[in-house]
Write a structure and sequence with these properties.
The chain is α+β, with helices and mostly antiparallel strands. It folds into two domains: 55 residues, no CATH class; 91 residues, no CATH class. The chain contains four helices and six strands; from the N terminus they run ααββαββαββ. The strands form three sheets. It has a two-stranded antiparallel sheet. A two-stranded antiparallel ribbon has the order 3-4. β1 and β2 form a beta hairpin. α1 crosses α2. The longest helix is centred in the N-terminal third of the chain and has 30 residues. It is elongated and about 75 Å long.
Length: 156
């Protein structure tokens, strides 16, 4: 039983020596091999970082496995995930007997607001949300010297 294993090891050692000798005798080819390996490892690392952040890490909210997103459906148009009107959301909230809290946000974001809290001004994306949104997400509203958001209304 030891012979096949030692023969396999001998073959592997012989292959590594031959590969290193070939790379030493052809430095241009060796450079291409090293660069190809470096690019491959870098690309794999980048892809894994994105997959890890998007799919493997839990959402940064309280009880993310209990969050549900609900859409309006319009079968006559073939739309299964359509936008919901504020009036529909109000009706759903009033008639709700399933969810603990319901909150809403529009599909669009607003821009043009500038934060001056750091050394350089920074444009920030904002959105209007319903009063149940913060409770649904398990976070508290943002508060600062220049602006605050409270009870579904924003004050600037």
């Amino acid at each position: 039983m030891n012979e096949p294993r030692s023969g396999l090891m001998n073959d592997a050692i012989r292959d590594v020596k031959w590969s290193l000798g070939t790379l030493r005798s052809h430095p241009g080819f060796a450079l291409v091999v090293v660069l190809t390996l470096a690019l491959g490892v870098g690309a794999d690392t980048a892809v894994f970082s994105v997959v890890n952040a998007v799919f493997l890490q839990p959402l940064p909210y309280h009880d993310p496995d209990r969050l549900v997103r609900v859409w309006s459906a319009f079968p006559q148009d073939g739309t299964t995930r359509g936008t919901t009107s504020p009036l529909d959301l109000d009706d759903w909230t009033e008639q709700n007997s399933v969810f603990e809290v319901m909150g809403g946000f529009p599909a669009l974001t607003l821009s043009g607001f500038v934060s001056t809290e750091g050394e350089t001004p920074e444009e920030i994306a904002t959105s209007f949300v319903t009063e149940g949104f913060f409770e649904t997400m398990g976070v508290s509203a943002l508060s600062s010297r220049e602006r605050w958001i409270c009870e579904g209304e924003s004050y600037f």
